[in-house]
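pasting for ref
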Amino acid sequence: MSSKQRFKLKRDLLLLEQRVKSQEVFVYNGSMHRADATTVAYAQTIQDNMIIIDINKTPCMIENADDFRRTLKLKHNEILNEYNNEYQKIIAR
């Protein structure tokens, strides 16, 4: 692989990572959260009617913890699937 090809590969992977990172943000009941692995893990500890802090450092009430977890996991899986598809396209070049 030439240095130009390596540069292009690294650049494309970095751009993909940045795009995916920006897509992680989602709104739930008027508050903004990040659908990343850390939040998915933290969500397992959330109970109904619990206050958590969103990405803007704003307290928000999670009235239905199961619904929050479901929404979070769907968004996280959607992002990971897109990341995987795009990653495979980039490395196949």
